[in-house]
Amino acid sequence: MHTVWKGAISFGLVHVPVKMFSATEDKDISMRYIHKECTTPLNFVRKCMTCEREVQWEEIARGYEYEPGAFVLFEKDELEKLNGEVTKEIKILDFVQLTDIDPIYFQKTYYLAPNETGGNAYNLLLEAMRQSGKIGIAKVSIRSKSSLAAIRVIDNCIAMETIFFPDEIRSIDQVPNLPEQINVNDKELQMAKMLIEQLSTPFEPEKYKDDYREAVLRAIEQKVNGQQVSVAPEPHKTNVIDLMSALQASLDAMKPVPETDAPPAAKEKKPKAKKKVKEETVS
């Protein structure tokens, strides 16, 4: 994996030299904008409307518009110094329970590996956090952005989750049309809880997949091979008109159908139906 940052975790007077690696990867399928008339890829040009020419990266500064048309300018190194980038430090401020943090705060996960000289201190912090059951809340600056972070243990690795500052979380009061009081029908509530119980299972992330990405990859392969893109038909939707009926239909759909309940005629026709589907797919 590519090292994205080097620095140290500090708690008290203890420093743990570490290297940082991104724990996740974006698997979105990248597509370019194409001119349909000639199939030429389009480029986005950084053009100055006053000088009427393309601007190179070394000519670009950052600016804050404090009033319409008026800017204060900052060079990259100025912002880095203000942001504490030169310290290269993940400073743990407090230790808390992971369950104390609402998931809305979490942003991105990184793995932290011990630097060549930091193995002993790394192991000490890892094991102390594991046995205490606590996670660290730290401040860190990565790529000119200051952030809060949660330092925790995943297996035999110290991981860092960047988290939002409290003033970056929007208030629920801004959400329109929320109910002032929760009033529900007791029978509907009981059925909804039964449906939740029916759908409850241990979290197994490997069973979930990105259906859209798989469909796009299939479509790309079909187009490369000169085939027409085939789209799966939309699933049949039942015309449920009220909430109670929807709940009951959902519960009925969750019930397994015993093999003995199927009539003999249906069992005999089953292989034939499969063959018909296969033939339609081939054609």
UniProtKB/TrEMBL annotation:
<comment type="similarity">
    <text>Belongs to the prokaryotic Ku family.</text>
</comment>
<comment type="subunit">
    <text>Homodimer. Interacts with LigD.</text>
</comment>
<dbReference type="InterPro" id="IPR016194">
    <property type="entry name" value="SPOC-like_C_dom_sf"/>
</dbReference>
<keyword id="KW-0238">DNA-binding</keyword>
<comment type="function">
    <text>With LigD forms a non-homologous end joining (NHEJ) DNA repair enzyme, which repairs dsDNA breaks with reduced fidelity. Binds linear dsDNA with 5'- and 3'- overhangs but not closed circular dsDNA nor ssDNA. Recruits and stimulates the ligase activity of LigD.</text>
</comment>
<keyword id="KW-0227">DNA damage</keyword>
<dbReference type="InterPro" id="IPR009187">
    <property type="entry name" value="Prok_Ku"/>
</dbReference>
<feature type="domain" description="Ku">
    <location>
        <begin position="52"/>
        <end position="180"/>
    </location>
</feature>
<feature type="region of interest" description="Disordered">
    <location>
        <begin position="252"/>
        <end position="283"/>
    </location>
</feature>
<keyword id="KW-0233">DNA recombination</keyword>
<keyword id="KW-0234">DNA repair</keyword>
<dbReference type="Pfam" id="PF02735">
    <property type="entry name" value="Ku"/>
</dbReference>
<dbReference type="InterPro" id="IPR006164">
    <property type="entry name" value="DNA_bd_Ku70/Ku80"/>
</dbReference>
<protein>
    <recommendedName>
        <fullName>Non-homologous end joining protein Ku</fullName>
    </recommendedName>
</protein>
